[in-house]
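Comment thread on ticket #2218

A.B. wrote:
> Attaching the input chain for the structure job we discussed in standup.
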Amino acid sequence: MSSDSAGPDWKPLRRASAHELVIEAIEDQIEAGALRVGDPLPPERELAARLGVSRAGVREAVRVLESQGVLRSRPGVDGGTFVTPVPREALTRFLRLHIALSNFALEDVVDARVVLERASAVRAAEARTEAGMAAMRDALAAMEAPGVSREDFNAADTAFHSGLAEASGSAVSSALTVSIRTAMRGPILEAMQRSTSWEAVSAQLRAEHRAIYDAVAAGDGETAADLVDRHVRRAAADLHL
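C.D. wrote:
> Ran it. Output below, let me know if you need it in another format.
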């Protein structure tokens, strides 16, 4: 082979900082199943000694993983740093920020909602968990209250779709659906505030939510899926998202 032939473009590797190595070590333990929800990390001094890094590196790694919703610190006698059981909050924050930064096109977000909520509707019609059905009923009552503000209507709309996901009994689908709908809460409220035909739009939204609930309550998953598909797409179009 000639010396001037094209080949791999080798470049120096970036040297990982201490906290990145600690993050990788903690993630490896979680992925291996050695660390589970609720498990504590070793104390800072002990973990630093085991990993052969500085305590500052451990502190920074814990800070990063806390911001990602993976760890949670608890002060006090029984305190420490634990693997968190509530990653949904971090997922919602992540999606909300990326949507605000326009890293995800709203059309793509709508498509993702449709896929998730169609599946949720089918499963909800089968499972009909009481908590989820109750959440949908409460949301309907809030949306149908006389003189409801656009902000309160939007909050009830979010609660309805969260309840639909919860009624499905699928923890993963529920977490993703709730995260995406909650992340969209701001843009949807802005669109509602801009609407010049809000009375007609809100009446249509109420009717669509009621029809979705009725289909789920009747155990008709396919109808519920079709209704939620049309609802999500029509709402996006009517509100000019």
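A.B. wrote:
> Thanks. Noting for the ticket: The longest strand covers residues 71-74.
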